[in-house]
Automatic annotation (TrEMBL):
InterPro entries named in the record: AB_hydrolase (IPR050471), AB_hydrolase_1 (IPR000073), AB_hydrolase_fold (IPR029058)
Claim: Hydrolase is one of the keywords in the record: yes
Protein's name in the database: Alpha/beta fold hydrolase
Residue intervals of the AB hydrolase-1 domain: 22-252
Alphabetized Pfam families for the sequence: Abhydrolase_6
One function term, GO molecular function aspect: hydrolase activity
Keywords: Hydrolase
Length: 271
């Protein structure tokens, strides 16, 4: 590729390996670099595709409103352009939202789903969440992406030995186009597919990091609504698990994909 022209936008997409396709979707204000430490292991057995969402990384930054449904439509269009039919989807944070949106909008496309530190809605249901959302928008509007990066970096990677990971946040999130980052952030607020996830029939693995922003109970609550889902905890990990626990994350994802594919083969054998 690596730039793929689609309707209304060209997306940058890194690829590696051969086999069953696996999409790795990044978080808000980041890029496919989220997956650099995970890609080599997954690419040993799979065709790994790592797109940058519109307005992020090396993809184009068209004008207009952004949001999860639009990001997900872009990814579906990318899959269609590459003639991908049944794809394992792995999403971190905003990428997990995109994965859930894909699963409800294009169920025939999603073979399985791994949701990492994410959920089916971004709604401020408490005063604390309303304050957090408002503060993030104010910081972005008044101070820009670099100031936001300096606030988030020590929260994401609090350990003294994680200085290189904190610097990575500054290099990636801090250098976002300010307007695109604001539009992407606003586009998440109020988003929800909570009432539709009961219709997600593909196998789902939800991963929760011990130090994630949202509690385990919130993830368990929506896992209970999914027909075929399980929840697993990543110990000694924060929100950005592909960076602070890449080996463990790759191991867990690999095992899940192997289970999904083995179950599918067994079903075909019975048929």
């Amino acid at each position: 590729m690596p730039m793929l022209p689609l309707e209304g936008v060209s997306l940058y997409c890194d690829t590696a390996g051969d086999g069953t396709p696996v999409l790795l979707l990044h978080g808000l204000g980041s890029s496919g670099r989220d997956w650099e430490l995970v890609k080599p292991r997954l690419a040993a057995r799979h065709r790994v595709l790592i797109p940058d969402a519109r307005g992020h990384g090396r993809s184009e930054t068209p004008p207009g409103k952004y949001g999860v449904p639009l990001f997900a439509r872009d990814i579906a269009a990318l899959c269609d352009a590459l003639s991908l039919r049944r794809v394992h989807v792995v999403g971190l944070s905003m990428g997990g939202m995109m994965g859930l949106q894909l699963a409800v909008d294009r169920p025939e496309l999603v073979r399985s789903l791994v949701i990492i530190n994410s959920g089916p809605e971004v709604k401020a249901r408490t005063l604390r969440r309303k304050f957090d959302f408002a503060l993030r928008l104010v910081v972005l509007w008044l101070l820009g992406p670099m100031r936001m990066a300096k606030i988030l970096a020590p929260r994401l990677f609090p350990k003294p030995e994680q200085e290189d990971l904190r610097q990575r946040v500054l290099d990636t999130l801090g250098h976002n186009d300010p307007d695109a980052y604001r539009r992407a952030t606003r586009g998440l607020l109020g988003w929800s597919v909570l009432e539709r996830i009961k219709d997600v029939t593909c196998p789902v693995l939800v991963l929760h990091s011990e130090r994630d922003y949202t509690p385990l109970a919130e993830k368990q609550a929506y896992v209970d609504l999914l027909p075929d889902a399980r929840l697993q905890v990543l110990s000694d990990s924060g929100h950005a698990a592909p960076l602070d626990q890449p080996e463990r994350l790759a191991e867990v994802v690999e095992a899940f994909l192997r289970d999904v594919e083995t179950a599918a083969q067994a079903t075909r054998g019975v048929g």
